[in-house]
Amino acid sequence: MTITLNGETREIQPGTTVAMLVALISGAEGRDSRGVAIERNLEIVPKSEHASTILEDGDRIEVVQFVGGG
């Protein structure tokens, strides 16, 4: 199954949830999964729905990492 993740085409397994995708990219890219916002097809996915939101072929996903500073 193919999605677009931050502008790049990516193959994922059918049945992958937003939470699974976040865990996958967090481990691969060294991101802190607690500080991300997910946009799916131009709509924000609330964190409370990450585990229950199953990605579909053709979804466009944008991941934004929050960065603290002073």
Structure at a glance:
The protein is of the alpha+beta class and 70 residues long. The protein contains 1 helix and 5 strands; from the N terminus they run E-E-H-E-E-E. It has one domain: Beta-grasp domain (Ubiquitin-like (UB roll)).
Index terms:
1 helix; alpha+beta; Ubiquitin-like (UB roll); 70 residues; five-stranded mixed sheet; 17% helix
Write a structural description.
This is Thiamine biosynthesis protein ThiS. Pfam families: ThiS. The chain has 1 helix and 5 strands, in the order ββαβββ. The protein has a single domain, classed as Roll (Ubiquitin-like (UB roll)). The protein has a 5-stranded mixed β-sheet with strand order 2-1-5-3-4, with no helix packed on it. By secondary structure, it is an alpha+beta fold.
Topology:
Blueprint: E1 2-5, E2 8-11, H1 18-29, E3 36-40, E4 43-45, E5 60-65
Parallel strand pairs: 1-5
Antiparallel strand pairs: 1-2, 3-4, 3-5
